Structures are given as C-alpha cells and as structure tokens.
Amino acid sequence: MKIAVCGTSCVGKSTYIENFCKKWSSFSSPSTSYREVIRQNNLNHSSNGNEESQKTILNCLVDQAIEFSKKENIILDRCVLDNMVYTSWLYLNDKVSEKFLEETRTLVRETLKLYDIIFFIPLTKVSPVKMTESELRDNDPVYREEIDNIFKSFLQSYHKSDGKIFPSEDCPAVIEIFGSPEERIKMTELYLNENGSPYGEQESLIKGIF
After folding, report:
1. Between β-strands 2-6 and 74-77, what pairing exists: parallel, antiparallel or unpaired?
2. 35, 136 in Cβ contact below 8 A?
3. What are phi and psi of 176, to 5 degrees?
4. I want to staple 46 with a disulfide (CB 3.0 to 4.6 A). Which of 56, 57, 138, 207 is the partner?
5. What is the pLDDT of residue 5?
6. Residue 198 lies in a domain
7. pLDDT tens digits, residue range 46-84?
C-alpha cells in the first residue's frame, strides 16, 4: 500500500501520519522528504516559488513515488498532487507559464498512478490546527485558504472523473478526512481494515447488522 497525505499548510498532516503509523504499525514514513531538497538547493517555495523550484520539487516527489512503488506499506507526507496545486496557484498569479503548468499536469497525471490512496485533509473551522513558524511554511491565512480551495477544486475533478488532473485509468482513491486527530483516525478506519488494507468488495463494517 502506497498512501500519500495532502493538504494546505498547518492542517495536521504530520500529526495524522504519526497517529496513522501508531494505529497501523506495518506502515512507515520516509525520514527524508522534498524539504531537504528545498534546503539543500536554497529553493524559493510556496508563494515565492518559480518554475525552477517547482520542477526540482516535482522531480523529487516523482523519484520518491517511483522508489517506494516497489515497497510495502508506505505513507508519504505530500505527493505530486501537492506540487500540481502549488504550481496552479503560481500560474493563477502569473508566476509560471501555461506551458510549464501543462508539462506539470502531464507528469503529475502519470505519476498519480503509483499511489493507492491519497488522503486529503481540508482546511476547516472544526478542530483547527495551531500554526507554527517554519522557514519552509507560508502561514499567510489568505494564501493557505487559496491553496485549500485549489485542492477542493481538484477533488471535484476527481469525483467527476473528467481526466483533467487524475488519470482515467489506474487512478488512486482520493479520500477526504477531517475533524480532531482522533476523529481522523476513526474516519480512516472506515476505509482500511485492521491490517491497513482497503476493505474488499465482500467486506463491510456493518456486516452482520442487517
């Protein structure tokens, strides 16, 4: 199982992954991420990103997806979908070209096939996460909300199966989870069994009730 957790900044992705790995101990999360690439290359990022930085980050995320595509039970903090969201924001704000956006879309669409499930954590007023300062995080509330809105528009594209962002075939499941840290794990239990595998067609959480 290859799982990725997506969402705008400061929605509790890291806490969710930590709690997830406690609940499903067969899963692990990589000790390194795209953040090291940003630091090592002193890249602009978030609202200050550009084509060079977004391409470097995307390549890192693609390499990560390929590397862990052959390993079992991995949960990742962000994936190529996040890169597409942030690149879309940069495009809407005239910071990257349409050509670059389309090149990103093509690579992202193909790479998404390597994931089994993407859990999306939306920005909500219920159980808000306290924002913390970080050199790799843009805490501007307007920017965070705009990024969240792009994520949600992509989720609509997923449900429509329009093929604009997500592949028409071999598409990962995209599942929205929210609430307190405990509630998020409870919601996840609706989709994964005690072994961390998706419920099959013959399985049901309410089996035996009816």
Report:
1. parallel
2. yes
3. -90, 130
4. 138
5. 98
6. no
7. 899 999 999 999 999 999 999 887 667 999 999 999 999
Residue whose tokens read 């989709």 = 191
pLDDT tens per residue across span 110-161: 999 999 999 999 998 765 656 555 555 567 899 999 999 999 999 999 999 9
Give a yes or no: residue 194 inside a domain. no
Q: DSSP for 140-195?
A: -HHHHHHHHHHHHHHHHHHHHT-SSSS-SSSPPEEEE--SSHHHHHHHHTTTB-TT
The domain in which residue 41 lies consists of 2-188
* Counted domains in the chain: 1
Look up residue 194 and give its two tokens: 């005690």
Answer whether 9's CB lies under 8 Å from 135's CB.
Answer: no
Is the residue at 105 inside a domain? yes
CATH number reported for the structural domain that contains residue 115 in this entry? 3.40.50.300
